[in-house]
Amino acid sequence: MRGVAATLLFLTAFGVTTPGVAAPPVSFELATDPGFSMTGAQRWIDALKDLDQSGLRIRSGQVGDKTEIINRGTEASPRYHVVGILMANNQLALPGGKFSLNDRAGIAKWIENLQEGGIDGLTKGKAAFGLTSDELVEFDKQLATPIDFDTKGVRAGDVVRKIVQGLPMETTVSATAARAFVRNETVLDELNGLSAGTALAATLRPLGLVLSPEKPRGGKVRVAISDVREVVESWPIGWPPQDSPKKVAPKLFEYLTVEITETALSEAITAIQGRVEVPFLFDHNAMAREQIDVTAVNVSFPKKRVQYIRVLDQVLFQAKLKSEVRLDEAGKPFLWISPRRG
Q1: In which band, very low, low, confident or very high, does the pLDDT at 47 lie, cut at 50, 70 and 90?
Q2: Which of 264-292 are b and which e, b meaning 16 or more Cβ less than 10 Å from the residue's Cβ?
């Protein structure tokens, strides 16, 4: 009972609501090509009458007729009016597709895609997460603002709440995800200065949670926080740079003279991180699976003049770890440290 109450409190603190959204109404106006047999009109009416549409009219074609979708409502409450063409070969042409009389399932799917993704979602095609390219770029942009508070040692739920409250998008949290915050685990990395998207993804991962963009039917794109097992795609912790690592994180490639003798890996990492001005983030989940504890592994490095990144790679190798330069949504570099087999 106490856990249920805490979960409800967590959801309330986020201001999360997940009301059902009615599907936008879709009406059809079908113009006939000159070669279309009007005796076939009734067959199309019979085929379409049980689909999710609010009106259907068939008329003779006119010069200049074209397939199009018109929103006769508002952006928040759309009402779609679809102009289609009944072609001489008895196919139905709609924006983005052509359908035979027997393809009711295809037409139903077309209507569903329009209701869920809107006009742009249907006509521009989808990228990742079921979004259009424009929607995906905008989502990434909304996550690019850096956070400006310390996170290491702070309750993960408090960090997540503070990040999402600063986002210009609605956030939803699944019931399973909300229960994970009741465990009161703390954030293990310092994420201050990183973008909201990367900081949020890194905070969620050790809890077995992920974030992803979600667009409800008839609604706007929002942030969804879920258990990793509840989704097929999830937002990554940073992105690979298109430029060379040396160009995006030059201090990692500066030279120093160094010697390390039987020192805890955690101490060596801290010393290097303090000099290269690049945040270090760890794949704590994978490290736990591989039973890698950076405080329990001693490392050594012979005295020589070498780049910081080479020293780091060598000492990480001794603990079966590896590093990778990534960028957050604002283009800030950080180092992602994970098991070589993780």
Answers
A1: confident
A2: ebeebbeebbeebebbbbbbbbbbeebeb
Residue 65 phi, psi dihedral angles, 5° rounding: -60, 140
Q: Are residues 104 and 161 in the same domain?
A: no
Give the count of beta carbons closer than 10 Å to the beta carbon of residue 32: 21
Helix, strand and coil percent figures for the chain, each rounded to 5? 35, 25, 40
263 backbone φψ class: left, alpha, beta (φ>0; ψ -120 to 50): beta
What's the pLDDT tens digit per position in 61-119? 988 899 999 999 988 889 999 999 999 889 999 988 899 988 989 999 899 888 887 88
**Helical ranges in 16-146 per DSSP H:** 41-48, 104-123, 133-142
β-pair partners for 336:
281, 324
Provide the 8-state DSSP code for 232.
S
Parent domain of 142: 137-230
Query: Do 270 and 223 reside in the same domain of the chain?
Result: no
What SS3 state is found at 198? helix
Indicate whether 19 pLDDT > 60.
no
Are residue 86 and residue 153 in the same domain, yes or no? no
Q: Give the SS3 label for residue 88.
A: coil
The string of pLDDT tens digits covering residues 227-243 is 999 998 999 999 999 99
Question: Would 180 be classed as within a structural domain?
Answer: yes
- Other CB atoms closer than 10 Å to residue 196's CB: what's the count? 23
Which spans in 30-155 are helix H?
41-48, 104-123, 133-142
The residue whose two tokens read 């201001």 is 15
**Does residue 131 belong to any structural domain of this protein?**
no
Q: Do 226 and 192 share a domain, yes or no? A: yes
Residue 13 falls within a domain, yes or no? no
Length of the chain, please?
A: 342
- Percent of the chain topping pLDDT 70: 91
In a domain, 6, yes or no: no
Question: Domain total for the chain?
Answer: 3
**pLDDT, tens only, 246-275:** 999 999 999 999 999 999 999 999 999 989
CATH number at residue 266: 3.55.50.60
